[in-house]
């Protein structure tokens, strides 16, 4: 959601290739974070019901 807002705000002032590069690098960082977390065996916090 935040990346979408950033793209909307940056669209008038930036080239499409720049926005695509930011989106691609963000996707890679998110994928690495998920992979590292999954390999470390860290469980997501749960809220009591």
Can you describe this structure?
This protein is an all-alpha fold. It has one domain (2-38). 69% of the residues lie in helices and 0% in strands. The chain contains two helices and no strands. The protein has helices at 2-10, 16-40. The protein starts with a helix and ends in a 9-residue tail after the last helix.
Question: What's the gist of this structure?
Answer:
This protein has 49 residues and is mainly alpha-helical. 69% of the residues lie in helices and 0% in strands.
Features:
49 residues, 69% helix, elongated
Number of domains: 1
Give the termini separation: 27 Å
Please indicate the percent range of residues in DSSP E strands (runs of 2 or more): under 5%
The percent range for helix content is 55-70%
Number of contiguous helices:
2
Shape annotation: elongated
How large, in whole angstroms, is the Cα Rg? 16 Å
Instruction: Let me know the largest β-sheet.
Output: none
Low-confidence stretches: none
Q: Find the count of extended strands (DSSP E, 2+ residues).
A: 0
Mean pLDDT, to the nearest integer, reads 77
Query: What structural category do the secondary elements indicate?
Result: mainly alpha
Order of helices and strands: HH
Task: Detail the topology: elements first, then pairings.
Elements: H1 2-10, H2 16-40
